[in-house]
Amino acid sequence: MGTPVNDDPTPDTAPPTTDFDFHGLRLAGLQLETAVERITALSRAHQQAVVVTPNINHLHLVQSSERAREAIGQADLQLADGWPIVVASRILGQPLPGRVAGIDLVERLVDGEPGFKMAILGGPDDAASRLAERARRRNEVVLVDELRPGWDRPDRRSRLVQRVADASPNLILVGIGAPRQEILAHELKASVAAPIICCGAAIEVLAGVRPRAPRVLQRLGLEWAFRLAIEPRRLARRYLVAGVTFTRLLLDAMRAHIVGRGENPRSSA
Fold first, then answer.
1. Beta-carbon count within 10 A of 167 CB
2. Domain presence at residue 2
3. β-strand partners of 117
4. In this structure, is residue 8 part of a structural domain?
5. Which of 28-37, 119-128, 197-206, 213-222 has the lowest mean pLDDT?
6. Binning pLDDT at 50, 70 and 90, where does residue 93 land?
7. Nearest-angstrom CA–CA distance, 35 and 265
8. For 110, which of 118, 133, 157, 171 is 20 to 30 Å away at the CA?
9. Is residue 57 part of a domain?
10. How many domains does one find in the chain?
11. In terms of residue numbers, what domain contains 203?
12. Residue 175 confidence (pLDDT)
């Protein structure tokens, strides 16, 4: 397995802060290695935690949906998946150390040490089962469920929560898209002593069901363009709307930042 690439297109010119608060998101100032260590420690300690990896689509959802705002905002650990959010943190003087791509995070946990008791939920077709085959090389996979259509009927949803509780995993992957995965994660959290990673498309990419952008595009921060090229109908409107929301919120934050500095007597010293 190759070394994960941090596809952050901006130079790391300032030390990281602990957190970056941005319009309903609270991003932890962690690098990939530290994030893996944090989640592994939570798993070993059998601690409950919901982990999300926000990008600008999450940011848009937080502004437009109360359920998304609660589910994403109440997560125990937020890691910046989207490089525009990292850029915003540096513009606003709260620099994050870099991007923590959800795919890289899950890959390191699935293929790394030590082994987990893992549950894998979601993904299209048989992606969860295929990822389970890979995960079993180093982990014990105690539950696999692709969450076929109809899984979220109240009766089946309740049974799913009970099945996860009975399996007693110490790491759970949920990949059904935001905000449904975050909402489900909070339901599961009450029944399991484990970190739950809301990982979007990571399941299908790591299972080999869908390709990931070439390394060069990851380094240039153009992974989104690759995804748009292979799924234009599904993603074009989402990217456009999320991009407009991000730009508006960043400009608002920049104006507030400038005004705040102007009101600080020491800013002109």
1. 17
2. no
3. 140
4. no
5. 213-222
6. very high
7. 38
8. 157
9. yes
10. 1
11. 19-255
12. 98
Q: Which residues of 18-53 are buried (b: 16+ CB within 10 A; e: fewer)?
A: ebbebbbbebbbbbbeebbebbbebbeeeeebbbbb
Mean pLDDT of 138-144: 98
Neighbours of 215 (CB within 10 A): 12
Q: Are strands 19-22 and 25-28 parallel, antiparallel or unpaired?
A: antiparallel
Q: Report if residue 62 sits inside a domain.
A: yes
Mean pLDDT of 204-224: 91
